[in-house]
Design goal:
The chain has 336 residues and is an alpha/beta fold. Helix content is 33%, strand content 23%. The protein binds nicotinamide-adenine-dinucleotide (NAD). Nicotinamide-adenine-dinucleotide binds next to helix 3 and helix 4.
Length: 336
């Protein structure tokens, strides 16, 4: 008898239908933060061994400081391949729309056929937080107890959730240019994570006393450079979710180790006008995860991770969502 691909339980209806997962579908079958961190660690191992494929992001730009990026990636060991088409528009919050919106297409790795289409806002939030946590495992002091969050939006939340998974955090300093957002954030997360959280009126207060600093405001080609030299404490770790936008170059150059998640992608951004004055790159995350390069080596080091966000992060997580959606019979089948 001939093998019928469309009856395959891993990719049902192959070549005939794809599974559409809305934002709430994705959230309903999304993996836990520890599962996402583990998926990213496996992926960064593969990346560290040179066994993945990911061209640097290409994009179009319809407004200043806005982007829509095409992000393809393949992780053969996980039979994971697909593309994220994601927009980031800083002014969206004034229209009560999310900063980040988009879709992700997952393909069958043997035939290339699209098998799922899903909203990518949840995955982008969670995988970015998880990448910060993977970096923190190698670069933060293991006893880090205080964290400053600058930018109390989606990323401010997911990064805290992920950091809480890997560090014994006790206190959060929350800063946002909209003080009401910082106050609401402090209230929400103290309830959600049983952690002390205070909102602060000055960005410096969120940096100077923190063992970990996360900057998650808008990404700007020309940094607003609010964080000055002398603010980041000795022994602290910073995660630059919004690239170098928040940092005065002299503050960045105080880092003993400056890392990123993908060096060619960082060079690509530098060529188009970002990252004009950053320290030398010590390692990428694949090199840290595979121990090709050392992470933190002393209590006093200042360490910085500038993870740009990789298609590989998304494609490492999307198959977990797809598999759980099949198990839970969530989603809508669409004819190809
Ligand atoms: N590196 C990555 O992988 C990655 C992935 C996704 C998003 N991002 C970036 O993360 C940033 C945040 O995204 P989001 O989805 O959380 O957006 P969001 O709109 O949900 O939150 C942004 C928050 O920052 C606040 N803000 C604006 N300027 C500020 C400043 N100077 N200081 C402090 N707060 C300020 C806003 O009031 C808002 O509350 C964006 O720049 C986005 O492009 C990076």
């Amino acid at each position: 008898m001939q093998y019928d691909r469309t009856q395959n339980p891993v990719t049902p209806h192959l070549g005939q239908k794809l599974l559409y997962l809305s934002q709430s579908d994705v959230a309903a079958c999304g993996p836990t933060m520890p599962e996402i961190i583990a998926a990213l660690e496996s992926m960064f191992c593969e990346k560290g061994e040179g066994r993945v494929e990911m061209p640097p992001k290409i994009g179009v730009h319809t407004m200043p400081d806005a982007f829509i990026h095409a992000m393809p990636a393949s992780i053969p060991a996980q039979k994971a391949v697909g593309l994220k088409w994601v927009g980031g528009y800083p002014a969206n919050s004034e229209r009560e729309l999310p900063y980040i919106t988009g879709l992700l297409i997952l393909n069958d790795s043997e035939t290339g056929v699209p098998i799922a289409l899903m909203d990518c806002t949840w995955i982008t939030a969670q995988r970015t937080g998880a990448a910060t946590a993977v970096a923190a495992k190698h670069l933060a002091r293991p006893d880090s107890a205080t964290v400053g969050i600058l930018g109390c939006g989606v990323q401010g939340r997911s990064n805290l959730e992920a950091l809480k998974t890997v560090l014994p955090l006790k206190k959060v300093f929350a800063y946002d240019t909209h003080s009401d957002r910082a106050a609401r954030y402090a209230q929400d997360i103290s309830k959600q994570f049983a952690i002390e959280a205070v909102s602060v009126a000055d960005p410096k207060q969120a940096v100077v006393e923190s063992d970990v600093v996360v900057t998650a405001g808008p990404i700007l080609r020309k940094p607003h450079a609010t964080i000055q030299p002398g603010w980041l404490a000795k022994g602290a770790f910073a995660s630059l979710v919004d690239f170098d936008s928040y940092w005065h170059p002299a503050a960045l150059h105080e880092a003993d180790k400056f890392t990123t998640d993908d060096v060619p992608q960082l060079h690509h951004y530098r060529d188009i006008g970002y990252f004009q004055n950053i320290p030398p790159i010590h390692a990428d995350l694949g090199e840290l995860v595979t121990a090709r390069k050392p992470g933190r080596q002393s209590r006093d080091e200042r360490t910085i991770a500038c993870n740009l966000g990789l298609a590989l992060d998304d494609i490492a997580v999307a198959p977990l969502i797809y598999a759980r959606a099949l198990e839970m019979h969530i989603g809508t089948w669409l004819l190809l």
